[in-house]
Design goal:
heterodimer, A: alpha/beta, six-stranded mixed β-sheet, 3 helices, B: alpha/beta, five-stranded antiparallel β-sheet, 20 helices, globular
């Protein structure tokens, strides 16, 4: 079964603030191991728009840095898993998610 | 943070001690960043505010630990600016409990002994309480110490946030004691410059030669007695606000220099050929009529145009209606707390005296009167005997006879003007009383202590119809 995740970006790493990210990565992991990625650039930073994007795209999980409680609870209510407080390059984060090893608060820069 | 040997401080005291231990005692969040903006060290308060695990933050770019909106809105460290002065802004962070916390952020470069930037020090303060207080205060019709419910004051309160958001020059006018200084400080505190200095200079308090050096600074040897470099008040206000009160007293040569500064924001200290780029918001205040001064050629028209970008006028207390009652009770509470007294209020008579008085000294005078009364009151209620003698010895219902024109000329409206005859004074008194009584002649006659017939006769004498 395929799995969709959304990662707000700051350059090539997870954006430290969900509400301030204008670039967002939408990744789809297929059951056959294939991954498809697309990056969307929003006209302006908006946590509401990101939530709307996550729900309309039927995202299974949102991986982000800091997110305020209101939007966190909204996404949870919509049945979307939120892995927040994640710090690190997006490639490593995606790989960890693929390997089912990603958890809230993970820091991929920590030695 | 781990206490590692590189953080040992020598020489400051008799024995060695650790920098983290020193920083942990400071109740403000402090992080030391390297030249690339990576966190080298953060104190306990910084960890408390952000909720970040200190061990995992070390060596990370600051924005990953702080998660502040300012990181993405022009932070000079993030923008990799080679040279900048201290930055002070109000911003917000998202802490580890997913709460958006308003903070006051300061970023200063750390300059080594070769005058090269070798890192940055960042301080953060949780300003939630301040934000809550200011929001509750605004509900109570007050703003940074100014209190009032009169339409004029409410209008000013509503204008301040939008004015504070800009960097435009502000001209505040109003009689003495109306709260020009308080309003200037309120504008500063409501602006992004709140954490930076608010420097005030009274143009009327210093002679011209001293004033120039006070404002713009001087270099060593610029004049006799200049034994060392002096930065000047404008430079001290860098990143903050500069408040020039009694701008009408600024001598003409200095008006030119101020105008030049307002145009290019560069200050040239006395005797120096090097300018300093000062990022300063200028607020000025005066009780004088600057337009009239321009006509009289004692104030430069171009400077007035430059300063008069935003003009706020504070009304005199006598035109603020019920604000007298509000302020009277406010000052009573304030001074009772200060002097640890339990006074419930004012007797009817003393309240009447206070309401009828014209307050040439405005709010400041009312405050002084209540302070006096609280000090002298030996009962639980302030009676007329506790008020300053000048309020009760004379007939306080006698009017202010001077014209607005004369008041502006002298700054302080006075109760009596010898230049005007008693006839004029009497006419003015009748008109004032009629206005106060809403045109009811019987009530006005009572208030003046005259019979209805005397009142009618005097109205006829002065050709007052009504």
């Amino acid at each position: 079964m395929s799995h969709k995740i959304m990662i707000p970006l700051h350059n090539d790493e997870v954006a430290p603030r969900f509400d301030l990210a204008t670039d967002v990565l939408l990744a789809k992991f297929r059951s056959d191991g294939e991954t498809s990625e697309r990056i969307i650039v929003l006209p302006q930073a908006s946590a509401d728009d990101l939530c709307a994007l996550a729900t309309s795209d039927n995202t299974d999980a949102v991986v982000c840095g800091g997110i305020d409680d209101e939007h966190y609870q909204y996404l949870k209510w919509k049945g979307i898993e939120v892995l927040d407080d994640v710090i690190g390059p997006v490639k490593k984060v995606m790989q960890a998610y693929k390997d089912n090893k990603l958890a809230r608060g993970d820091n991929f820069y920590m030695v | 943070m781990t206490h590692e040997s590189p953080y040992i401080i020598n020489g400051l005291m008799d024995q060695q001690f650790l920098l983290p231990d020193l920083l942990n005692e400071v109740p403000i969040g402090i992080a030391v960043l390297d030249i690339e903006g990576r966190i080298k060290l953060a104190n306990r308060a910084w960890q408390t505010i952000t909720g970040a695990d200190p061990e995992s933050m070390q060596g990370l770019k600051c924005y990953l630990g702080l998660r502040c909106d300012y990181c993405f809105k022009g932070c000079p460290v993030m923008a990799d600016k080679a040279d900048f002065q201290t930055v002070s802004v109000d911003a917000d962070i998202i802490d580890r409990t997913r709460t958006k916390v308003p903070i006051r952020l300061n970023i200063s470069p750390i300059v080594n002994n070769k005058n090269v930037i070798s890192g940055y020090v960042e301080t953060i303060q949780d300003i939630r309480q301040v934000a809550e207080l200011s929001s509750s205060a605004s509900k109570a019709y007050s703003l940074g110490g100014l209190i009032g419910t009169s339409p004029e004051m409410v209008k000013i309160f509503s204008m301040v946030p939008s004015i504070a958001a800009t960097d435009s020059s502000v001209l505040i006018t109003g009689e003495t004691g109306t709260g020009k200084d308080v309003l200037a400080e309120a504008i500063h505190n409501a602006s992004d410059r709140a954490g930076a200095p608010f420097i005030k200079v009274n143009c009327g308090a210093l002679p011209e030669t001293l004033l120039e050096s006070e404002l713009f600074g001087h270099v060593k040897g610029a004049f006799t007695g200049a034994n060392e470099d002096r930065p000047g008040r404008i430079k001290l206000a860098h990143n903050g606000s500069f408040f020039l009160t009694e701008i009408g007293d600024l001598p003409l040569p200095l008006q030119v220099k101020l105008l030049s500064f307002l145009d290019d924001k560069v200050i040239h200290p006395l005797g120096s050929s090097r300018g300093f780029n000062a990022d300063v918001r200028v607020i000025v205040a005066t009780h004088r009529d600057l337009k009239r001064m321009v006509q009289e050629k004692t104030f430069r028209a171009d400077l007035l145009f430059r300063l008069n970008v935003v003009h706020l006028h504070l009304p005199p207390l006598r035109e603020r209606g019920d604000d007298i009652l509000l302020l009277k009770n406010h000052f009573l509470m304030e001074y009772c707390n200060k002097f640890n007294k339990k006074i419930k209020g004012f007797t009817k008579k003393s309240a009447k005296i206070l309401s009828a008085y014209r307050y040439p000294g405005n709010v400041r005078e009312l405050s002084n009167i209540v302070e006096y009364a609280v000090n002298f009151c030996d009962r639980d209620i302030i009676g007329s005997s506790h008020l300053p003698a000048y309020l009760t010895e004379q007939d306080i219902l006698r009017p202010v006879t001077e014209t607005t024109h004369a008041a502006q000329e002298r700054g302080v409206p006075v109760e009596y003007s010898s230049a005007q005859s008693w006839d004029d004074a009497e006419k003015q008194m009748i008109m004032d009383t009629l206005v106060k009584c809403g045109g009811r002649k019987g009530e006005a006659a009572n208030m003046l202590g005259w019979s209805r017939s005397t009142f009618w006769r005097k109205m006829k004498k002065h050709s007052i119809s009504g």
